[in-house]
Design a protein that fits this description.
Layout: H1 9-19, H2 32-51, H3 53-57, H4 66-91, H5 97-105, H6 122-143, H7 149-177, H8 181-200, H9 212-217, H10 225-242, E1 253-255, E2 260-262, H11 268-278, H12 282-295, H13 297-307
Antiparallel strand pairs: 1-2
The protein binds 3-hydroxybutanoyl-coenzyme A.
Residues 40-41, 44-45, 48-49, 52, 79, 82, 110, 112-113, 132-133, 136, 139, 162, 200-204, 209-212, 215, 225, 275 line the site of 3-hydroxybutanoyl-coenzyme A (3HC).
Length: 310
Amino acid sequence: MTQATDITPKLAEFEARIGRGEKIEPGDWMPDDYRKQLIRMISQHAHSEIVGMLPEGNYITRAPSLRRKMVLIAKVQDEGGHGQYLYHAAETLGISRDEMEQALLAGKAKYSSIFNYPTLNWADIGMIGWLVDGAAIKNQTMLAHCSYGPYSRAMVRICAEETFHQRQGKEMIVKYAQGTPNQRQMAQDALNRWWWPVLMMFGPHDSDSPNSEVLRRWGVKTQSNDTVRQLFLDEVVPELMAIGLQIPDPQLHFDAENKHWKHGPIDWAHFWQVVKGNGPMNKERLAARNQAHDNGAWVRDAVTAYASRK
Ligand code: 3HC
């Protein structure tokens, strides 16, 4: 990483622009590290959106009502669109769509750990909407202020749609929590399964986040992993408690002095196992993504043939 001592005039001007809150656009000068970090982060974000379609997509045929089916179809379709915005934002930095796609299909690219858990029943679909998309909104609202123009603008559009995703999930879980004992238990079981993986979504603690320093310096991340996690906790803990759900963290407590909810220790060994590909559903998700790619080969061939017609 470039040290302050050998700062070049170009880097000095770049950092002055960041300091003035200017957006860096695709044709602007930018340090190689800035470009590399953005390609890393945006491509992983795009992969997360596309892989994130899988856990919910296989419930579209099992929705409990036509309304729920239509809402879930709309949500899954939105996630696919988010992936397209983000792949395009990454392409503005010089990486090709094919290169990103091949890295994902080969299991070489990261995507969010949260999508490597099973969806066991319909209450999971509600919990994903409320908590996973709720966590994504906190992180993406932060990124909407990111210094790279195409990424920050994509976030504005994505956050608007994520709000609908979160609302529909919350509506579902509130109904379950106010329903029959069996429905309440399904909601509680879903919370027990998703609570800790959702806290891990925000990434390792700031002290263990090697990318954060340069991302904060250059205005890509405007808040730290722990700060965004804290925003999420302070929002959802009272809401989950208000509908009578028990949060599966015996050490969770309210710090009255700082007015924040404090969680117990996160199992980072488990997190890194999932990130390294050894989570409950990593292999299935990658196989499903490869299957979808193979099934779509005829569409790509048809488009290529049409585009090259005389
Ligand atoms: N899952 C997988 N890998 C993760 C991770 C997670 N939840 N959190 C961190 N990591 C990885 C990082 O990619 C990095 O590895 P790398 O250097 O090989 O890429 C390593 O762990 C160290 O973590 P850092 O904190 O240093 O990494 P970042 O500074 O990139 O911070 C992040 C992690 C906060 C997730 C950041 O990458 C980010 O904000 N990404 C953009 C948002 C995003 O990707 N969200 C994923 C969810 S998208 C979604 O939920 C869709 C919605 O529709 C539901």
